[in-house]
Amino acid sequence: MAAAETNICPACGATLAPGESCEERYHRCLAKEYEDWTGYGAVHNLSVPAYMLQHPGRYSREGWLEARRLLAAFLAGKPPAEVRQQNRARLDSGNRPWRMTGGEGVSPPAGLVWSRTIADVRLEDPATYRADVVEWARAVLADTEGWESRRREW
Fold first, then answer.
1. 148 by DSSP, 3-state: which?
2. What is the CA radius of gyration of the chain?
3. Distance separating the N- and C-terminal Cα atoms of the chain
4. Report field, pTM of the whole predicted structure over 0.85
5. Number of Cβ atoms within 10 Å of the Cβ of 126
6. pLDDT for 36-90, tens place per residue?
7. What is the C-alpha to C-alpha distance for residues 83 and 40, in angstroms, rounded to an integer?
8. What is the DSSP letter of 39?
9. CA torsion sign, 50 to 53 to 59 to 63?
């Protein structure tokens, strides 16, 4: 009997278990976060932008850059409520001249290898999950350092 092959995510390069996709794993993470908001959900403000940055799909370039700015603010220790309050008017869809989805998209630079992906996030218990999401988010931010200034290259 042949061993089952692993899956490689075309967006982020994660090595996943047979039959698993990053999207499916992301939805499992979200389910845990919503089921246990004070445990798993405490890092929701990090898991969502980290996933989005590695899987830009339908997001616009401007939306991607804004998600990176928000992730940087959260990792700098700003509480989500404070970040929302500071950015509410600027990010309101009625005020901003760009759309979160559609338009010119984003493709990571050729040859990029992400340091960590959602596949590195363990789901066994809230403390481990939170620590892994923080490390994943830090890695995503570090891996994308300088992209903003080189935005026309990608």
1. helix
2. 16
3. 43
4. yes
5. 17
6. 999 999 999 999 999 999 998 888 888 898 999 999 999 999 999 998 888 888 8
7. 20
8. T
9. positive
